[in-house]
Write a structure and sequence with these properties.
Layout lengths: L5 H7 L6 H6 L4 H6 L9 H22 L5 H11 L2 H10 L10 H5 L6 H19 L1 H22 L6 H13 L4 E8 L6 E8 L2 E8 L2 H16 L1
Antiparallel strand pairs: 1-2, 2-3
Helix pairs in contact: 4-5, 4-8, 4-9, 6-8, 8-9, 10-11
Length: 230
């Protein structure tokens, strides 16, 4: 462990009362597989708690700041902001990866930049802040280091919507009609089907999509169509 956590504490503007709690944030379970008698546990329990704290913080923030949205929109926005990729970006910006204690295998496998490991570490840090400093400090930490301008961008650009929903909005606003999805063909046995769906503007094929279900293939087709439109 670092001899001092001062650089990280300075960056996040939080001075921990319990330094061992902060230590635990960075102990990946793989490290303990190689050091079974190490004195500290892994960060998995903190990660579990952090997931719940983060969910509550996000719900409260959306309720306070986006009063005109509906419950379903809250759910979609929350899913978009707390997804693994978003948490991993926030962790990377704080350089949490350099503090991780990993197994030799994870170290060799570039574990310090692994999105899942970084996202879990960020959740563990949220939990540690909550336990050490209380809910309001954890709330402020998440707003500063996860939401910032990112959440506003997600809401204003409708990035939280599924590709099908975004394509429908795009087509409706420009052409006053709805995109159509048609099954082009399917392959494979019943337990392992693969569908190819085409999305059309009237009779014009915009894009194709594939998936193991028709819904998955439709979403893929919509995503591909949006990329073409952009």
């Amino acid at each position: 462990m670092p001899s001092t956590w001062s650089p990280l504490e300075k960056k996040i503007k939080i001075r921990f009362h319990d330094q061992q709690l902060l230590n635990n944030v960075f102990i990946h379970r793989s490290y303990l597989n190689e050091h079974r008698h190490y004195q500290f546990p892994s960060n998995e329990k903190l990660e579990f708690l952090g997931d719940s704290v983060l969910s509550l913080i996000t719900s409260i923030y959306l309720y306070r700041n986006y009063v005109d949205l509906h419950e379903g929109e809250y759910t979609d926005i929350k899913a978009a902001i707390v997804r693994t990729e978003s948490l991993a970006v926030a962790a990377a910006q704080l350089q949490l990866g350099k503090y991780l204690w990993l197994s030799h295998g994870e170290e060799q496998g570039d574990g310090r930049r692994n999105k899942n490991i970084l996202a879990d570490c960020f959740e563990a840090l949220v939990a540690a802040v909550f336990l050490d400093q209380g809910f309001e400090t954890a709330y402020d930490f998440v707003v500063r280091h996860l939401f910032a301008a990112k959440l506003k961008l997600i809401v204003t650009t409708n990035a939280y919507l599924s590709p099908k929903s975004r394509l429908q909005q795009n087509i409706q606003s420009r052409h006053k009609t709805l995109p159509l999805y048609r099954l082009m063909h399917e392959t494979g046995p019943d337990h392992q089907k693969r569908f190819v769906i085409g999305v059309y503007l009237e009779e014009k094929l915009l894009a194709r999509g594939t998936g193991h279900s028709k819904k998955e293939a439709e979403e893929d087709a919509a995503k591909n169509a949006l990329e073409k439109i952009r």
